[in-house]
Amino acid sequence: AAVGVPSSLKQFPFTRSKTTRPAAREGVHQSQKQANQRQIAILAIGTATPHESWSAAEFVGDLEPLVERGVASPEWLAVLSKACRNSGVDRRMLAMAKGE
């Protein structure tokens, strides 16, 4: 004779879609995060102008809020600041990248 399923288990959502949804959502979040990082890097490095340049230290200090908000990783910030060390960063584009 088959054993009946307890009513408490019937109410629990044991469906495949519900168990995989959080992981799928996290994957979308990660790819969006990476897209944001690429966009900021393109804006910051690709629009370098000599007349309105910041030092690497000022630049890193200005992007730290992005790390705090989870838009950029500390590792990415280090790579970006190194890339910008010998080039100017346009203040307007940096402000745009930060969403100001």
Give the N-to-C terminal Cα separation: 68 Å
Count of distinct strands: 0
Q: Which residues form runs of ≥5 with pLDDT under 50?
A: 15-20, 48-54
Given helix and strand content, the structural type is: mainly alpha
Strand content: under 5%
Mean pLDDT: 58
Helix content: 55-70%
Q: What's the Cα radius of gyration?
A: 23 Å
Order of helices and strands: HHHHH
Tertiary shape: globular
Largest sheet, if any? none
Count every helix, treating DSSP H or I runs of 4 or more residues as helices: 5
InterPro entries: Thiolase-like
GO molecular function, one term: acyltransferase activity
Region (Disordered): 1-35
Biased composition (Polar residues): 8-17
What do these coordinates show?
InterPro entries: Thiolase-like. Residues 1-35 are annotated as: Disordered. GO terms for molecular function: acyltransferase activity. Residues 8-17 have a biased composition (Polar residues). By secondary structure, this protein is mostly helical. Helix 3 packs antiparallel against helix 4. Helices cover 66% and strands 0% of the residues. It has a domain at 36-100. The radius of gyration is 23 Å and the shape is globular. Mean pLDDT is 58; it is low at 15-20 and 48-54. It contains 5 helices and no strands.
